Amino acid sequence: MNKLVIALLISLTSFSFSQMNAQQFKVGLKGGINKTYGGEITGINSGVPADYTSDTFEADGEIGYHGGGWVQVNFGKFFIRPEVVYSKLESRFDFPQGPTLFEVEEFSVPLLIGYNIYGPLDIYAGVAYKNIISSTIERIEPTNDPPQVVIQNTPFSAQIGVKVEFGSFGLDVRYDYSLSSADPYDVDFQSDNADFVIPTVNRAILNDLRLNQIIVSLTLKLWDSENKSRRRKGGSCYF
């Protein structure tokens, strides 16, 4: 795992635990779905325009998923919330030779600063460090061992969202915007339409493979310092 991620996690954990006695401290899990937006590929006619298209294709976002954990330290109506999240993202390019899936696996560490508007309703914003585990597009040659595609040159995104909590459960909705960019480059796609009834994508330029997301999470609070001294009958702790 990236050394920067490890150092960041240690720092955030140390800070959070140092605040346990002075402020409200929460620990929990999260999981849910993510809808992707973005991604553009332009075909190259390769000197045979009747066979190979030079059209530009925008990706259609698919539904992916994510899961992870979070801690939250409250300072009155303000809070700091570091998280650790694994995500699987999917988009689809509708090429003439057939739908082509674009898949990304990433590990992210968001650091969020929020404010309690009223009761259970909070707003927040922050940045997320992202480590790309895998990024592939179907049909790229060689198809038996497709290479990883480059989707970012800086590992950060910005996040803004809103969440509500009712007891131990909550709902979190946020927008994740990639702050990275990547230089376009050429790849070869498999042209499996042997009759060339319609122009297919052969050589192509990967213009922009950044993926922005709308992320919807269900959250579960496992521990809350406000309730640490409370006990159920039988001796177990309240969440």
Q: Calculate Rg over CA atoms.
A: 22 Å
Inertia-based shape: elongated
Strand content: over 45%
Number of helices: 1
Order of helices and strands: HEEEEEEEEEEEEE
- Helicity, as a percent range: under 10%
Q: Which structural class should the secondary elements be placed in?
A: mainly beta
Give the strand order, joined by hyphens, for the main sheet.
1-5-6-7-8-9-10-13
- The number of E-state strands comes to 13
Cα separation of the termini: 32 Å
Q: Which segments are poorly predicted (pLDDT under 50) over 5 or more consecutive residues?
A: 231-239
Average pLDDT figure: 86
- Main sheet specs: 8 strands, antiparallel, barrel
Secondary-structure blueprint of this entry?
Blueprint: H1 3-18, E1 24-37, E2 40-44, E3 56-58, E4 60-61, E5 63-75, E6 78-95, E7 98-118, E8 121-137, E9 156-166, E10 169-178, E11 185-188, E12 203-208, E13 212-224
Antiparallel strand pairs: 1-5, 1-13, 2-3, 2-12, 4-6, 5-6, 6-7, 7-8, 8-9, 9-10, 10-13, 11-12
Structural commentary:
The radius of gyration is 22 Å and the shape is elongated. The chain has one helix spanning 3-18; strands at residues 24-37, 40-44, 56-58, 60-61, 63-75, 78-95, 98-118, 121-137, 156-166, 169-178, 185-188, 203-208, 212-224. It is built from 1 helix and 13 strands. A hairpin with a 2-residue loop joins strand 9 (156-166) and strand 10. The chain has 239 residues and is mainly beta.
List keywords for this structure.
single chain, 239 residues, mainly beta, four-stranded antiparallel β-sheet, 1 helix, elongated, disordered C terminus
